[in-house]
Write the structure tokens for this entry.
Amino acid sequence: MIRLQKVQALQSIYLLLLCLGLFLLTGCAQMTGSGTGGQQGNYDTGFVPATSGNYDSRDTAIVISKNIEASTITFKNMELGKFYTLNYDGATAYYDKYGQALSLEQVRVGEIVSVDFLHRAKRLDSLRLSSDVFAFDWVEHFAMETGSREIKLNNEIYRMAQDVIVLTENGIGDRMDINEADVLRVSGHDHLIESIVVERGHGYLRLSNDSFFIGGFLEIDHSKIYQVSEEMLISVPVGTYEVTISNAGCSGTETITVKGNEEYEWDVSEWQGEAKYGVLVFTVSPSNAKVYIDGRRADTDTEQELTYGIHQMVVVAEGYQTISKYIRVSEEYSNMNITMEWGSGGSNTTSENAVSENNVSGNNVSGNTVSGNTVSGNTSSGNTASQGTPSDRTPVSASGYKVTIEGPEGVEVYKDGTYIGLAPVSFPKEEGSYIIILRKNGCQTRSYTITVDDSAKDISYSFSALLPIN
């Protein structure tokens, strides 16, 4: 009997210990899963599963940069203008504007996109190119409109947003960093430009031993024409191409390679010598058209002898569109076929007194080497051959006022390739767009595009200090 009681007592102790163990295990489990206040819940470790469709926010944004090493993409929110960076992973999806899959490499900076992401975790779930935007790739010919944020592309006027993003090889830039020697990629909505990417930048061309060629012409890549001046420094596209210099019947051509933000110096002394001449035979329609070469009336009924090189040509006839362009003489004997187009309204006259050396505009050869090519109806209006002066703008003088480049002090200042002095330095104020180049030995050369209005007041610019060459 006593033995049975002991067995029952031991069983009771074992049962008590078992219940106590179960209680302790249950309490620990509750503490492990509890949140604040001792209530049961899940502990937030910050872990986000890499699964598609896991997001809580959506934005329309511009891609600013991609960091492959850090697996991040930086965006600019288009509504608020704020910049933020999101992480991407193997489950992040990328789509074009039609919903077709893309790779990350196909997503370019400057793109306007729709992004889905987890806000707290800063994880990018998906990115899709916006479908309601315009995008122009590889824009080589454009004109910055004077006194406004307008730019002319494909013969249409577009307006740049107040906070337009400009992306250069050095990161985020400014509208003034855009040079008409650059090649751009442009994106936006309707006719409002919101993103500009400099696809191909520019470097600089300096001439040495060029005194013989001053007053002559410099041709860049068969497309741009500049009049040679003393100590000129020209912003030119990055790349490898031909440059030709000519004056007084002497000319020379060389292939150069220009690197971004670097100067190329071309010694042109070997090209000076005895003048060469070419004979031109004109065929003009209508027959009563008047042809002027370098400001002088040419008798198109007889052969015309011209020195080798670039010449300015103006063709006028009542009722027809005036032709103004550059021609290049490079052969001993050539035919020049000119066909004028009837002007709108039936009348477009130009008096002989209005035709002078400076009436030919637009630094553009457009392949008009005189070697049997036909010239027809190419209308333009009076600007001299100078960098950054599009043919559809005529400078308007605001006499008595000036533009001053205040700083950085002591740097060389070039206006449209022509040296004007050390900063601070001024030049007469005329409405138009100008390329301002700043240079100093031992520093990186910089260029800016400025637009000058016709207001009756002086204006001034002060730029950032030039960075030293590494």
